[in-house]
Amino acid sequence: MNRELLEYIDNPKSSLACFNLAEWYYKQDQWASALTYYLKVTEINDNDDLTYYSLIKGGRGLHKQGHQTYMAKGMYLQAISVLPQRTEAWYWLGKTYTELNNWFEALACAETGLKCEDSDTNVDLEYVGKYGLMITKGECLIDMDRREEAIEIFSSLLHSKIMNDNDTEWCIGQMRRMWGDNWVKPNYY
Questions:
Q1: Strand, coil or helix: what is 29?
Q2: What is the pTM of this model?
């Protein structure tokens, strides 16, 4: 048996033991089992941080199962109700709204998340940082036909060199989408 399961067996009412077991299942790509224990953390509800993390990770697991967008959205909304000043749930909720082509809702999430403080955590919430909220905002602006503002955002992000390689390529693709094939990658990148 794994250590996380033994800890949970010893103390099934511990939110930390439930969370650690959920994390173990999550890392094994066993989303349904992970969700069971993430939800148990929210039922115990003695630690807002663990409840928040559990709701986000539960939502991520639902996304990874596929076709669970509306259920994941509910988990992100619940996470926001627990700790509304944190950015990660705003980021994932905004990403979910973009999947649903709900541009105004996604833009509202990105704008709200940008006003929040980034928080340090040793829990991997698959959150890239505030630049992810900027990308979401830019994507919304494109689809809301506010291309000048989107160009300004993507240019600023490309100039800053803070993004990972995948997000950088995505932003370059968006610039080409707006400008056409004649867009030339700037010298600063």
A1: coil
A2: 0.90
Cβ neighbours of 185 (radius 10 Å): 10
Cβ atoms of residues 119 and 87 within 8 Å: yes
Distances in Å between the Cα of 52 and the Cα atoms of 1, 93, 112, 137, 187 are 28, 13, 17, 23, 41
| Average of per-residue pLDDT across 37-58 | 95
Work out the pLDDT band at 1, boundaries 50, 70, 90.
low
CB-based contacts of 77, cutoff 8 Å, min separation 6: 89, 93
Whether 188 shows a pLDDT value over 60: the answer reads no
Element containing residue 119 per DSSP (H, E) = none
Cβ atoms of 64 and 92 within 8 Å: the answer is no
> Is the Cβ–Cβ distance between 151 and 116 less than 8 Å?
no
Per-residue pLDDT of 98-113, as tens digits, reads 999 999 999 999 999 9
Q: Distance (Å, rounded) from C-alpha 91 to C-alpha 68?
A: 17
Question: Which tens digits make up the pLDDT trace of 120-169?
Answer: 788 899 999 999 999 999 999 999 999 889 989 999 999 898 999 999 99
Per DSSP, the residues of 117-159 read BP---SS------HHHHHHHHHHHHHHTT-HHHHHHHHHHHHH
Return d(Cα 116, Cα 111) in angstroms, integer: 9
Burial of 79 (0-12, 13-18, 19+ CB in 10 A): buried
Q: Give the distance from CA 22 to its chain's centroid.
A: 18
